[in-house]
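Class, study these two lines:
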Amino acid sequence: MIAFLHHLGLVLLGGVFIWAGAEHFLRFRAVTASLAERGFPAPRPLLAAGSVLEIAGGFCLAAGLGGPFPAATLAVFTIAASFMALNFWRYSGDEREAYRLHHQCRRLGRVDCRRDH
């Protein structure tokens, strides 16, 4: 039973990364524009590489391939991406709350996350 739960956890966690990478490809223009707006160099290849890493790492994690390396790679990627692209701490007050709500809404899968809907 423990082995089953362990594998189920790997499948679910890997699925999150597969979903995130696929979503970046589905929203490629918008995400690329956002990265360019924030001054990231070569946003298209950067986004493509990050998305491929998420999908491949998520697949390896879900399939149990590569031992601890996919998990370590995805952990480092997530920390780096959080500091570089999801730096919510630069906001304060209402602006921070709006940013938090927007990203929470995106994680829940809504395409249009404006408050007036």
Observations:
- The mean pLDDT is 84.
- The first helix runs from residue 2 to 26.
- The helical segments are 2-26, 28-37, 43-63, 69-85, 93-107.
- The radius of gyration is 16 Å.
